[in-house]
Protein backbone atom coordinates (compact mmCIF):
# COMPACT_ATOMS: atom_id res chain seq x y z
CA UNK A 1 0.00 0.00 0.00
CA UNK A 2 2.79 2.41 0.98
CA UNK A 3 4.63 1.63 -2.28
CA UNK A 4 1.57 2.54 -4.35
CA UNK A 5 1.18 5.82 -2.47
CA UNK A 6 4.83 6.71 -3.14
CA UNK A 7 4.52 5.80 -6.82
CA UNK A 8 1.41 7.94 -7.14
CA UNK A 9 3.03 10.91 -5.42
CA UNK A 10 6.14 10.64 -7.64
CA UNK A 11 4.12 10.63 -10.85
CA UNK A 12 4.47 13.75 -13.01
CA UNK A 13 2.36 13.98 -16.13
CA UNK A 14 4.47 14.58 -19.22
CA UNK A 15 7.78 13.67 -17.59
CA UNK A 16 8.57 11.51 -20.63
CA UNK A 17 8.65 14.66 -22.79
CA UNK A 18 11.28 16.50 -20.74
CA UNK A 19 14.98 16.80 -21.51
CA UNK A 20 17.63 15.44 -19.19
CA UNK A 21 18.99 18.88 -18.24
CA UNK A 22 22.40 18.34 -19.79
CA UNK A 23 23.60 17.50 -23.28
CA UNK A 24 25.46 14.35 -24.31
CA UNK A 25 27.46 13.59 -27.43
CA UNK A 26 24.56 11.48 -28.73
CA UNK A 27 22.19 14.43 -28.21
CA UNK A 28 24.45 16.66 -30.28
CA UNK A 29 24.79 14.12 -33.09
CA UNK A 30 21.10 13.21 -33.29
CA UNK A 31 19.87 16.75 -32.62
CA UNK A 32 22.12 18.22 -35.30
CA UNK A 33 21.21 15.45 -37.72
CA UNK A 34 17.48 15.94 -37.16
CA UNK A 35 17.69 19.72 -37.56
CA UNK A 36 19.80 19.52 -40.72
CA UNK A 37 17.62 16.78 -42.19
CA UNK A 38 14.50 18.84 -41.56
CA UNK A 39 16.05 21.95 -43.14
CA UNK A 40 17.29 20.05 -46.19
CA UNK A 41 13.90 18.40 -46.63
CA UNK A 42 12.19 21.79 -46.31
CA UNK A 43 14.46 23.23 -49.03
CA UNK A 44 13.64 20.19 -51.16
CA UNK A 45 9.94 20.92 -50.77
CA UNK A 46 10.53 24.48 -51.95
CA UNK A 47 12.31 23.09 -55.02
CA UNK A 48 9.27 20.89 -55.68
CA UNK A 49 6.92 23.87 -55.57
CA UNK A 50 9.27 25.92 -57.75
CA UNK A 51 9.40 23.22 -60.42
CA UNK A 52 5.65 22.56 -60.33
CA UNK A 53 4.87 26.28 -60.64
CA UNK A 54 7.27 27.00 -63.50
CA UNK A 55 7.01 23.91 -65.71
CA UNK A 56 3.77 23.69 -67.66
CA UNK A 57 4.18 19.95 -67.92
CA UNK A 58 3.19 19.75 -64.23
CA UNK A 59 0.14 21.99 -64.52
CA UNK A 60 -2.11 18.95 -64.50
CA UNK A 61 -3.63 16.47 -62.00
CA UNK A 62 -0.29 14.72 -61.46
CA UNK A 63 1.40 18.02 -60.58
CA UNK A 64 -1.53 18.97 -58.32
CA UNK A 65 -1.26 15.68 -56.40
CA UNK A 66 2.52 15.99 -56.24
CA UNK A 67 2.13 19.51 -54.76
CA UNK A 68 -0.45 18.27 -52.23
CA UNK A 69 1.84 15.45 -51.15
CA UNK A 70 4.66 17.95 -50.75
CA UNK A 71 2.43 20.05 -48.47
CA UNK A 72 1.93 16.91 -46.37
CA UNK A 73 5.68 16.47 -46.15
CA UNK A 74 6.16 20.08 -45.04
CA UNK A 75 4.43 19.50 -41.68
CA UNK A 76 6.98 16.98 -40.48
CA UNK A 77 9.86 18.97 -41.96
CA UNK A 78 8.87 22.10 -40.05
CA UNK A 79 8.55 20.16 -36.77
CA UNK A 80 11.96 18.53 -37.25
CA UNK A 81 13.77 21.74 -38.20
CA UNK A 82 12.20 24.13 -35.66
CA UNK A 83 11.28 21.97 -32.67
CA UNK A 84 12.49 18.40 -32.24
CA UNK A 85 16.02 18.98 -33.51
CA UNK A 86 16.68 22.16 -31.52
CA UNK A 87 15.26 20.91 -28.19
CA UNK A 88 17.31 17.71 -28.55
CA UNK A 89 20.38 19.92 -28.73
CA UNK A 90 19.29 21.93 -25.65
CA UNK A 91 17.61 19.21 -23.51
CA UNK A 92 15.37 21.59 -21.49
CA UNK A 93 13.53 20.24 -18.42
CA UNK A 94 10.60 22.67 -18.44
CA UNK A 95 8.83 21.74 -21.70
CA UNK A 96 5.03 22.07 -21.39
CA UNK A 97 3.57 18.59 -22.05
CA UNK A 98 0.99 20.15 -24.36
CA UNK A 99 3.79 21.49 -26.58
CA UNK A 100 5.46 18.09 -27.01
CA UNK A 101 2.10 16.49 -27.74
CA UNK A 102 1.11 19.26 -30.17
CA UNK A 103 4.40 18.86 -32.07
CA UNK A 104 3.60 15.18 -32.61
CA UNK A 105 -0.03 15.80 -33.61
CA UNK A 106 0.89 18.64 -35.97
CA UNK A 107 3.53 16.55 -37.73
CA UNK A 108 1.44 13.37 -37.84
CA UNK A 109 -1.58 15.21 -39.30
CA UNK A 110 0.50 16.34 -42.27
CA UNK A 111 2.15 12.92 -42.28
CA UNK A 112 -1.19 11.22 -42.87
CA UNK A 113 -1.89 13.64 -45.74
CA UNK A 114 1.44 12.70 -47.30
CA UNK A 115 0.80 9.03 -46.61
CA UNK A 116 -2.55 8.88 -48.38
CA UNK A 117 -1.45 11.24 -51.17
CA UNK A 118 1.28 8.69 -51.94
CA UNK A 119 -1.54 6.32 -52.84
CA UNK A 120 -3.41 8.99 -54.84
CA UNK A 121 -0.33 9.78 -56.94
CA UNK A 122 0.14 6.08 -57.67
CA UNK A 123 -3.51 5.72 -58.70
CA UNK A 124 -3.11 8.74 -60.95
CA UNK A 125 -0.23 7.05 -62.75
CA UNK A 126 -2.25 3.84 -63.07
CA UNK A 127 -5.11 5.60 -64.85
CA UNK A 128 -2.70 7.52 -67.09
CA UNK A 129 -1.07 4.29 -68.30
CA UNK A 130 -4.12 2.04 -68.49
CA UNK A 131 -6.77 4.54 -69.63
CA UNK A 132 -4.96 7.50 -71.25
CA UNK A 133 -7.98 8.46 -73.37
CA UNK A 134 -10.16 8.83 -70.26
CA UNK A 135 -7.51 10.46 -68.08
CA UNK A 136 -8.73 14.05 -68.43
CA UNK A 137 -12.33 12.99 -67.99
CA UNK A 138 -11.57 11.06 -64.79
CA UNK A 139 -9.10 13.45 -63.19
CA UNK A 140 -10.95 16.70 -63.77
CA UNK A 141 -10.39 19.74 -61.56
CA UNK A 142 -13.39 19.02 -59.31
CA UNK A 143 -12.34 15.44 -58.62
CA UNK A 144 -8.74 16.40 -57.86
CA UNK A 145 -9.72 19.15 -55.44
CA UNK A 146 -12.28 16.83 -53.84
CA UNK A 147 -9.70 14.06 -53.39
CA UNK A 148 -7.19 16.37 -51.71
CA UNK A 149 -9.86 17.98 -49.52
CA UNK A 150 -11.21 14.57 -48.51
CA UNK A 151 -7.73 13.32 -47.63
CA UNK A 152 -7.12 16.41 -45.45
CA UNK A 153 -10.43 15.86 -43.64
CA UNK A 154 -9.58 12.21 -43.04
CA UNK A 155 -6.18 13.21 -41.62
CA UNK A 156 -7.75 15.65 -39.16
CA UNK A 157 -10.39 13.10 -38.13
CA UNK A 158 -7.74 10.43 -37.51
CA UNK A 159 -5.63 12.72 -35.33
CA UNK A 160 -8.73 13.82 -33.39
CA UNK A 161 -9.00 10.23 -32.14
CA UNK A 162 -6.07 11.00 -29.81
CA UNK A 163 -8.29 13.63 -28.16
CA UNK A 164 -11.48 11.58 -28.11
CA UNK A 165 -10.02 8.46 -26.49
CA UNK A 166 -8.24 9.19 -23.19
CA UNK A 167 -4.71 8.14 -22.26
CA UNK A 168 -3.45 7.68 -25.82
CA UNK A 169 -1.28 10.75 -26.28
CA UNK A 170 2.13 10.56 -27.90
CA UNK A 171 4.74 13.32 -27.88
CA UNK A 172 8.35 14.00 -28.77
CA UNK A 173 10.94 13.28 -26.06
CA UNK A 174 14.36 14.95 -26.47
CA UNK A 175 15.71 12.53 -23.87
CA UNK A 176 14.72 9.46 -25.88
CA UNK A 177 15.15 11.10 -29.32
CA UNK A 178 11.77 10.06 -30.61
CA UNK A 179 8.01 10.05 -30.14
CA UNK A 180 7.01 8.22 -26.94
CA UNK A 181 3.81 7.34 -25.17
CA UNK A 182 2.70 9.84 -22.51
CA UNK A 183 1.28 8.11 -19.44
CA UNK A 184 -1.71 9.85 -17.93
CA UNK A 185 -1.75 7.91 -14.63
CA UNK A 186 0.84 5.94 -12.62
CA UNK A 187 -1.36 2.83 -12.46
CA UNK A 188 -2.43 2.82 -16.13
CA UNK A 189 -1.15 -0.72 -16.71
CA UNK A 190 0.21 -0.14 -20.23
CA UNK A 191 3.17 1.69 -21.76
CA UNK A 192 1.87 2.34 -25.25
CA UNK A 193 -0.87 4.20 -27.08
CA UNK A 194 -3.70 2.07 -28.42
CA UNK A 195 -4.51 4.57 -31.18
CA UNK A 196 -1.05 5.15 -32.65
CA UNK A 197 -0.18 1.60 -33.84
CA UNK A 198 -3.66 1.15 -35.34
CA UNK A 199 -3.41 4.33 -37.40
CA UNK A 200 0.16 3.54 -38.46
CA UNK A 201 -0.87 0.07 -39.63
CA UNK A 202 -3.67 1.68 -41.64
CA UNK A 203 -1.10 4.00 -43.24
CA UNK A 204 1.13 1.00 -43.92
CA UNK A 205 -1.75 -0.81 -45.65
CA UNK A 206 -2.89 2.16 -47.76
CA UNK A 207 0.34 3.93 -48.65
CA UNK A 208 2.58 0.90 -48.91
CA UNK A 209 0.68 -2.31 -49.66
CA UNK A 210 -2.07 -0.74 -51.78
CA UNK A 211 0.38 1.48 -53.64
CA UNK A 212 2.58 -1.52 -54.32
CA UNK A 213 -0.35 -3.41 -55.84
CA UNK A 214 -1.30 -0.43 -58.01
CA UNK A 215 2.27 0.00 -59.22
CA UNK A 216 2.47 -3.70 -60.01
CA UNK A 217 -0.63 -3.40 -62.18
CA UNK A 218 0.89 -0.35 -63.87
CA UNK A 219 4.09 -2.28 -64.53
CA UNK A 220 2.11 -5.13 -66.08
CA UNK A 221 0.58 -2.70 -68.54
CA UNK A 222 3.99 -1.21 -69.36
CA UNK A 223 5.40 -4.71 -69.86
CA UNK A 224 2.49 -5.59 -72.13
CA UNK A 225 3.16 -2.50 -74.25
CA UNK A 226 6.82 -3.43 -74.45
CA UNK A 227 6.03 -6.94 -75.71
CA UNK A 228 3.29 -6.01 -78.17
CA UNK A 229 4.36 -2.67 -79.63
CA UNK A 230 7.91 -2.07 -80.82
CA UNK A 231 7.07 1.50 -81.83
CA UNK A 232 5.58 2.26 -78.43
CA UNK A 233 8.52 0.62 -76.66
CA UNK A 234 11.01 2.88 -78.45
CA UNK A 235 8.99 6.04 -77.89
CA UNK A 236 9.89 8.76 -75.41
CA UNK A 237 6.54 8.19 -73.72
CA UNK A 238 7.29 4.57 -72.87
CA UNK A 239 10.77 5.39 -71.58
CA UNK A 240 9.23 8.04 -69.37
CA UNK A 241 6.64 5.59 -68.08
CA UNK A 242 9.40 3.19 -67.12
CA UNK A 243 11.42 5.94 -65.48
CA UNK A 244 8.50 7.15 -63.34
CA UNK A 245 7.53 3.58 -62.52
CA UNK A 246 11.07 2.99 -61.22
CA UNK A 247 10.81 6.19 -59.16
CA UNK A 248 7.52 5.00 -57.67
CA UNK A 249 8.96 1.62 -56.74
CA UNK A 250 11.95 3.23 -55.04
CA UNK A 251 9.62 5.50 -53.06
CA UNK A 252 7.47 2.51 -52.09
CA UNK A 253 10.49 0.59 -50.79
CA UNK A 254 11.60 3.54 -48.68
CA UNK A 255 8.10 4.08 -47.33
CA UNK A 256 7.63 0.40 -46.46
CA UNK A 257 10.92 0.20 -44.53
CA UNK A 258 10.31 3.37 -42.50
CA UNK A 259 6.62 2.81 -41.73
CA UNK A 260 7.36 -0.80 -40.76
CA UNK A 261 10.09 0.47 -38.40
CA UNK A 262 7.64 2.94 -36.82
CA UNK A 263 5.08 0.18 -36.28
CA UNK A 264 7.68 -2.16 -34.75
CA UNK A 265 9.17 0.50 -32.45
CA UNK A 266 5.63 1.53 -31.41
CA UNK A 267 6.72 4.75 -29.62
CA UNK A 268 8.84 2.76 -27.18
CA UNK A 269 11.20 4.86 -25.05
CA UNK A 270 13.75 2.01 -25.03
CA UNK A 271 14.23 1.96 -28.80
CA UNK A 272 17.84 1.52 -29.94
CA UNK A 273 19.71 4.32 -31.72
CA UNK A 274 19.34 2.47 -35.01
CA UNK A 275 15.60 2.16 -34.39
CA UNK A 276 15.40 5.91 -33.68
CA UNK A 277 17.23 6.76 -36.90
CA UNK A 278 15.06 4.42 -38.95
CA UNK A 279 11.66 5.12 -37.41
CA UNK A 280 11.96 8.81 -36.58
CA UNK A 281 14.60 10.59 -38.69
CA UNK A 282 13.97 8.10 -41.49
CA UNK A 283 10.52 9.59 -42.10
CA UNK A 284 11.88 12.98 -43.16
CA UNK A 285 14.88 11.40 -44.87
CA UNK A 286 12.53 9.66 -47.31
CA UNK A 287 10.96 13.05 -48.03
CA UNK A 288 14.39 14.18 -49.21
CA UNK A 289 14.64 11.07 -51.37
CA UNK A 290 11.16 11.72 -52.78
CA UNK A 291 12.30 15.17 -53.89
CA UNK A 292 15.50 13.79 -55.41
CA UNK A 293 13.66 11.01 -57.25
CA UNK A 294 10.76 13.08 -58.57
CA UNK A 295 12.77 16.19 -59.44
CA UNK A 296 16.12 14.98 -60.69
CA UNK A 297 14.93 11.79 -62.41
CA UNK A 298 12.89 13.92 -64.82
CA UNK A 299 15.06 15.34 -67.63
CA UNK A 300 12.80 18.37 -68.10
CA UNK A 301 13.30 19.23 -64.41
CA UNK A 302 17.06 18.84 -64.71
CA UNK A 303 17.13 21.02 -67.79
CA UNK A 304 15.08 23.66 -66.04
CA UNK A 305 17.04 23.63 -62.76
CA UNK A 306 20.60 23.36 -64.02
CA UNK A 307 20.55 25.35 -67.24
CA UNK A 308 19.42 28.86 -68.12
CA UNK A 309 16.35 27.97 -70.14
CA UNK A 310 13.28 30.22 -70.44
CA UNK A 311 10.11 28.76 -68.98
CA UNK A 312 8.46 28.43 -72.39
CA UNK A 313 11.48 26.65 -73.86
CA UNK A 314 11.75 24.32 -70.84
CA UNK A 315 8.11 23.41 -71.21
CA UNK A 316 8.49 22.82 -74.95
CA UNK A 317 11.05 20.09 -74.28
CA UNK A 318 8.12 17.72 -73.75
CA UNK A 319 7.17 15.95 -76.93
CA UNK A 320 3.51 15.27 -77.79
CA UNK A 321 4.12 11.55 -77.38
CA UNK A 322 5.02 12.02 -73.72
CA UNK A 323 1.67 13.18 -72.44
CA UNK A 324 0.22 9.81 -71.42
CA UNK A 325 1.54 10.08 -67.88
CA UNK A 326 1.37 13.86 -67.69
CA UNK A 327 -1.48 14.83 -70.03
CA UNK A 328 -2.08 18.23 -71.51
CA UNK A 329 -1.89 21.30 -69.32
CA UNK A 330 -4.64 21.23 -66.70
CA UNK A 331 -7.21 23.91 -67.36
From TrEMBL:
Residues 39-298 form the 7TM GPCR serpentine receptor class x (Srx) domain. The chain crosses the membrane at residues 28-52, 101-122, 143-165, 199-223, 244-264, 276-297. It comes from Steinernema glaseri. Keywords: Membrane, Transmembrane, Transmembrane helix. CDD domains: 7tm_classA_rhodopsin-like (cd00637). This is 7TM_GPCR_Srx domain-containing protein. It comes from the Eukaryota.
Amino acid sequence: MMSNVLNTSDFVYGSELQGRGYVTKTDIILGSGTTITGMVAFCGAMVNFYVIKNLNVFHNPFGFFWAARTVGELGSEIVYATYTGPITLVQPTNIPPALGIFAYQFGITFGYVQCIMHWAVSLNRFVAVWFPLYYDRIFNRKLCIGVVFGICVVAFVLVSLYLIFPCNHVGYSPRFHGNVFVKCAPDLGRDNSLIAPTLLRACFSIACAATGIINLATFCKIAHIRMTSTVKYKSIEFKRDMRLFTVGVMQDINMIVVVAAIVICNNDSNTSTFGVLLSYDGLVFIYILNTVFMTFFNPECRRFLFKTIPKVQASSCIQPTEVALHPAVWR
